[in-house]
Design goal:
alpha/beta; five-stranded parallel beta sheet
């Protein structure tokens, strides 16, 4: 073991999916000793690593038994979990990324913390090139569709900031850009569905945070039959694991799916 390796965390618990996926991509999965039960990327992580947390709760005793030298968390919503671990003497790093640039920053910091700063920069540069290519293609669209992205159905919750920004990169315009700045889901609730109808989205994308999206259920909402997206059958699902985790998935597969949906709309209706 080199001196530099001795200074790096070797037993990491990831309380959310994005840091797990990133460490696997960096070839540092051997450092992971525990993961979130919601982890699906990469699929093999579920078979290889103990599941020790949900999102708002965690098995503190089980985490402590793993003797982690570092725990990665996400957002103020995990503050209570972090506090319990800190009181038990565990080092905890909680990221709070909400924008595309903040995701890039988080990914670089994690890479540096496991001694992979150079590899991290190379991978992030490649992701930026892919985003620039999508942005360049979108700039050629003669019309940009209005998109309503629904993160939850009852109550209606609209897109968080990084999703809103990725919709813009993909070639569409978020119907609720004002709400996207709100970091908490409770602050992005649209109490009256008629407000969505009035904004007349051309495309609707559902990503019901781990629950299967029901396009038929959405289309049957009272007063929604004249919404352009409903009238033209432009209702789609993007899995929450691909777009609602603020990490590699959103910057690659998530935005690519958004872009394909927008491109299809441009060909058919733009």
């Amino acid at each position: 073991m080199t001196v530099s390796d001795a200074l790096l965390p070797s037993r990491i618990v990831c309380l959310t999916e994005e840091t797990t996926e990133w460490l696997y991509l960096l070839g540092q999965d051997a450092r992971i000793v525990g993961i979130s039960g919601y982890t699906v990327r990469p699929r093999r992580a579920r078979a290889e690593k103990p599941k020790v947390s949900a999102f708002l709760s965690a098995k503190i005793d089980k985490i402590l038994a793993l003797e982690p030298d570092c725990v990665f968390g996400f957002s103020d919503l995990q503050a209570d979990i972090a506090a319990s671990l800190i009181r038990a003497g565990v080092q905890v790093t909680v990221f709070n990324q909400r924008s595309v640039e903040e995701i890039f920053s988080m990914l670089y910091q994690v890479a540096a913390m496991v001694g992979q700063a150079d590899q991290g920069l190379q991978r992030l540069a490649h992701m930026r090139v892919q985003l620039d290519e999508i942005r360049h293609t979108a700039a050629t669209f003669k019309r940009r569709p209005k998109i309503y992205f629904e993160e939850w159905d009852e109550p209606h919750i609209s897109a968080i900031r990084w999703v809103s920004e990725l919709m813009g990169i993909a070639g569409g315009d978020d119907c609720f850009p004002d709400l996207a700045r709100m970091s908490l889901g409770k602050d992005r609730i649209i109490a009256d569905g008629q407000t969505i109808v009035e904004r007349a989205p051309d495309i609707i994308i559902g990503s019901w945070c781990g629950k299967k999206f029901r396009a038929d259920k959405m289309a049957a909402r009272p007063g929604w039959q004249d919404v352009p997206a409903v009238r033209h059958g432009q209702l789609f699902e993007i899995k929450s694991a691909d777009i609602l985790q603020p990490g590699p998935a959103a910057l690659t597969d998530g935005v690519a799916q958004l872009h394909r949906i927008v491109q299809q709309w441009v060909v058919q209706h733009g």
